[in-house]
Amino acid sequence: MKKIFTFMIGAFAFGLSSCSDFLDETNKSGLTGDTFYATTTGIESLVNSTYTPLRFWYGKEGGATMTELATDLFLKGGDCHHPEIADMSANFNSQSPIIQVYWSRLYAAINYCNTAIEKIPASPLPEATKKLRLGEVYYLRAMYNWLIVETWGGVHLSTKPTIGVQTTSTKSSVDEFYKVIFADLDLAIANLGGRINHEGGRVTKPAAEAFKARMLLTRGQNAEAAALAKKVISDYNFKLYSDYKALWDINNSEGSTNSEVIFYVNYSADNLLNPADLEFDGNSTANAFRPEGGNQLHLMFTPRYDFHAGMILDIPNSIGFQRYACTRRYLELFNSDIDQRYDGTFKEVWKANGGKIGAYTNMIQGDTAVYWSHKALSSSFKASKALKYEVKDINDLYNPDQSLVDFRNFIEMHKHNSTTDRTAIFEFRSKRDAFVQRIAEMYLIAAEGEMKAGNAAEAVKYMNLLRTNRAKAGRTADMQVTASQMNIDFVLEERARELGGELLRWFDLKRTGKLVEYVKAYNPNAKSNIKDFQVLRPIPQSHLDVITNKSEFPQNPGW
């Protein structure tokens, strides 16, 4: 099975609802959920529906907005759909559409999982298959609960399916959420047993162990996190790429065959699974959050290169949706002379592809048209290229306060590129699988966990194992670090170099207590607006307005 996605048959056909879903539905078919889920087709459809909400987050604009904006790594681009989040302005509040969408989607996801957990034991599936399916669903419920509790804190915790109108909500503590998360992950690990290889994007035992390692680190169980991360490194066949750029090559974008990928959300080149009517329409509440439409992150970090001499829109360069622009801080974290991750992450050069050359009378088609450098370039170098192509260095791209000179012009974060799998310029959908967990994260968890547990030698060992693999040829010695360099700021720098743009940054800064500090230091758009209470997002006003026990379920502090 290549693709799990089955249009959420099980979940939507019978109107499962969450604590914030107050729509009444009439079933005119006469077929009930209990009847359908008592069949093999029905229960498999229900299990498949528990995967589908991942497509609202991973590979989509909304998930990137919630995790990469208002951090130290990304600013709003020229056509950012959520500038209120990028700037943490007063317009980001409990009525923000993105908050309402994800609240609804994530609680619906929890309800699909709760229903599957209840229905699988009595289903006609073989016992071995029941065990595997329960393992998958327990993992997914842990994932969705993590997104909920880290986004909103101690809100409504649901472990049983709900059907029909729910008019009350009960707040549970963060500790209670994590008690369920860890219990679910333990059950997932036990039930998944020997499944260590990808099966069409289904959850595996190492995926559950890797996610548990992330959760242990989040909760400050550092030695345990390090031990489990090291187990994932040693016990399975995951392998770091020797070429970081190859890791992100579109030809290696199939999660099941990429040696670094532990778990992924699968997308397809088959447009029957990527309906064309669900592309972006500019509506912040709509298509960016739907599960169809393919992976769309290749559009989001791209500038308007076609506004420049020598350049027109084409397939290899994608389309400059310019939602997110790298901060100066992100670019300057890299020593590109020794670390191959800079070249594997960013795009600085565009080749002339038929556009009007204007004043660049010596421009050559097929050669450089635009060069934007993360380094400071000499005036003599710039002068030597004045008639050949456009040159800007980092001081031309950023103002002295680190803000962008032009929100449309920025060095592209290129790791989500989609260059060969699309057949038309305005084909927005990519087959690229969205990588949720990679083995590199396990090295970083092992290093951070051992560092916090006081085991400096082990921390350095795992950090250097990763950095050795990411060194440019002949620069391995330059990439080594010592115990004196190992502190939480260095770990966060390394996580940015390795995992930037992979929908983890907001969570990393929050769990380490660095979110407000880093935004104030490195994000010129949000630094004056961000407040300590904004480590939690606002509960949607639409939910607070409908529940009847308002005094027992107040808004998060500060909002």
Automatic annotation (TrEMBL):
It is found in: Cell outer membrane. Residues 335-559 form the RagB/SusD domain. Residues 21-217 form the SusD-like N-terminal domain. The keyword Signal applies. Gene3D superfamilies: 1.25.40.390. InterPro entries: SusD-like_N, SusD_RagB_dom, TPR-like_helical_dom_sf. Keywords: Cell outer membrane, Membrane, Signal. Belongs to the SusD family. This is RagB/SusD family nutrient uptake outer membrane protein. It comes from Arcicella lustrica.
